[in-house]
From TrEMBL:
InterPro entries: GltS
A GO BP annotation: L-glutamate transmembrane transport
Its membrane topology: Multi-pass membrane protein
Function recorded in the entry: Catalyzes the sodium-dependent transport of glutamate.
NCBIfam families according to UniProt: gltS (TIGR00210)
Location within or outside the cell: Cell inner membrane
Single annotated GO MF: glutamate:sodium symporter activity
Keywords: Amino-acid transport, Cell inner membrane, Cell membrane, Ion transport, Membrane, Sodium, Sodium transport, Symport, Transmembrane, Transmembrane helix, Transport
Membrane spanning stretches: 7-26, 38-56, 68-87, 93-118, 125-146, 166-184, 211-231, 237-259, 280-300, 306-331, 338-361, 373-397
Major subcellular location class: membrane
GO CC aspect terms: plasma membrane
Record's protein name: Sodium/glutamate symporter
Length: 398
């Protein structure tokens, strides 16, 4: 049974409302900063899996709106980023990228070891490594045919999709607890008192948005997305491609740091009020995107490879937590920004860019803003990581 696009979007809105209400009223969810979309999205995925298990009926959702919501979200991040924050992200960006590269090597090595231990072809374990976990579903779908046709691994697609499913769920869950542990263990003070990049603080009174705040924000987002498509097409002419959401991020940064200074003083005053509108629209876009992503999970695809996937992913998740707490947090500066980036690291290595940002958003809504983290993490996991991952995968396959 296929649910059409309009009804799928409506269900996503309902699930996000449910997640928001539960996160506001359940102490456990609030304490460990579990992202609101995760709560509603996983409820839907579990119900759909239950229907399949009991009735044998597959329910799928038409999720065409999902990818556009991601463009809105990243355009919003760019529109709230100033050049000073971007420049200050230079060294942390390089460090985080190097940490992610090392971890991808560990992921692939661990996957191959576990595959050999279960009596499978060692290279089949790569489908439970950086292909499906760091690369996500897009990388999985791209590489699985090669594993099947050239390496003779018939169930490569099932291994990759199942690993991506488990990794995505785990990435949504571990970010908040990691941040809570680091804040408590190292006595790190929250960063209250600064406007958030995405969403509104759980502890601060919500600002009063007026008609023009939201309307100007929507206009700015649309212009950023149009410019982002143009940038993406120009880059494509050179034979090099980047994800569209990355070009929308760059477009937002360009507009944010150029346009206000070329307009009149009256327009500049209006622009200052747009930030609250951008925060709201971006937060809703991210929430609905992640809710729809989790709605689309087909948990029954874990059948047939459950034992291997369960054991391998348990080790991969544990490795992520240990690596993040002991290495990533320390090398990223042992401060509040490092806590927020650590919360997003699980999204980089187990889930997706949106998962990383959702974890970081949930943490900053609880503890305060972390502006540098919202520049560094999207650039690492949305741009550089895919390029490096392609070379690493090719090396391991070879």
């Amino acid at each position: 049974m296929q649910v059409d696009a309009f009804l799928s979007f409506t269900i996503a809105v309902i699930l996000l409302i449910i997640g928001k209400i539960l996160s506001m009223n359940v102490a456990f969810l609030r304490k460990y900063s579990v992202p609101e979309p995760v709560v509603g999205g996983l409820v839907c995925a579990a119900l759909v899996a239950g229907v399949y298990a009991i009735l044998g009926e597959k329910i799928t959702f038409e999720l065409g709106m999902r990818d556009f919501l991601l463009l809105i979200f990243f355009a919003g991040i760019g529109l709230k980023a100033d050049v000073g924050s971007l420049l200050s992200g230079g060294k942390p960006l390089l460090i985080l990228l190097l940490l992610a590269i090392v971890f991808m090597l560990l992921q692939n090595a661990m996957g191959m070891v576990m595959a050999s231990w279960f009596g499978l072809e060692a290279k089949a374990g790569l489908m439970t490594g950086s292909i499906s976990l760091t690369g996500g579903i897009g990388t999985t779908l791209a590489w699985a045919p090669l594993f099947t046709d050239r390496l003779g691994i018939e169930n490569a697609m099932e291994l990759g999709v199942a690993s991506n499913t488990v990794g995505l769920i785990a990435a949504c869950v571990i970010g908040g607890p990691i941040a809570a542990f680091l804040m408590s263990r190292h006595r790190i003070a929250p960063a209250h008192g600064s406007d958030l990049d995405i969403g509104v603080s759980n502890d601060r009174p919500q600002s009063r948005l007026d008609y023009f705040c939201v309307l100007w924000a929507i206009l700015a987002l649309n212009i950023a997305i149009i410019l982002g498509f143009g940038i993406s097409q120009l880059i494509a002419l050179s034979g090099f491609t980047v994800p569209t959401f990355v070009s929308c991020l760059f477009a937002g940064i360009l507009i944010r740091n150029v346009v206000p200074y070329t307009l009149s003083a009256a327009i500049q005053r209006i622009w200052l009020g747009v930030d609250d509108g951008l925060a709201l629209v971006s937060d809703l876009s991210l929430g609905l995107f992640l809710t729809m992503a989790l709605m689309g999970l087909q948990l029954w695809q874990l059948n047939g490879v459950f034992t291997f996937i369960a054991c391998t992913l348990a080790i991969q998740i544990a490795l992520t937590v240990i690596y993040t707490v002991t290495i990533v947090f320390r090398l990223m500066g042992r401060d509040y920004e490092a806590v927020v980036m650590s919360a997003g690291f699980g999204g980089i290595t187990l889930g997706s860019t949106a998962t990383a940002i959702a974890n970081m958003t949930a943490v900053t809504q609880q503890y305060g803003a972390a502006h540098r983290a919202f520049i560094v993490v999207p650039l690492v996991c949305g741009f550089f990581i895919d390029i490096v991952n392609a070379f690493i995968i090719s090396a391991f396959v070879g």
